Amino acid sequence: MAQIHEKLKMMREKAGLRQRQIAEYLEVTQTFISKVETGERNLTVDQLESIMNLYGYSLASFTDKEQDLHSIQFAFRVQDVSLDDLRIIAEIGRIAINSRFMAKTLEESNVG
């Protein structure tokens, strides 16, 4: 379980986002996000799925130790990212995750 909390923090930092931004996106407090990252609290399945879409990782990132962890890379041209921006990034992330899954499935079906 500790690995999940550590990965969540690593993913947030790699995305260049602050706890406050994630809290606003998930409609929770910054304290809650801090406690999630230290293992004192847990996210719901819906919250975890939302945050994974935002970061551009599949849920398998937590269960498959061999999976290559590649997030969706995005660059910001402004100092602060709005809640609407985060929602759009999450939708793009969800599409990219699904696209990766479909490509992998097609590749495996062509090999077999």
What does this protein structure show overall?
It is globular, with a radius of gyration of 15 Å. It is mainly alpha-helical and about 110 residues long. The mean pLDDT is about 85. The chain has six helices and no strands. The longest helix has 29 residues, at about 85-110. Helix 2 (about 20-25) crosses helix 3 and helix 4 packs across helix 6.
- Put simply, the count of helices is 6
Helicity, as a percent range:
55-70%
SSE order in H/E notation? Answer: HHHHHH
> What would you call the shape?
globular
* Number of distinct beta strands: 0
Uncertain stretches of 5 or more adjacent residues: none
Classified by CATH, the class is Mainly Alpha
Which descriptors apply to this entry?
about 110 residues; single chain; globular; about 65% helix; 434 Repressor (Amino-terminal Domain); mainly alpha
List the helices and strands and how they pair.
Blueprint: H1 2-15, H2 19-26, H3 30-38, H4 45-55, H5 60-63, H6 83-111
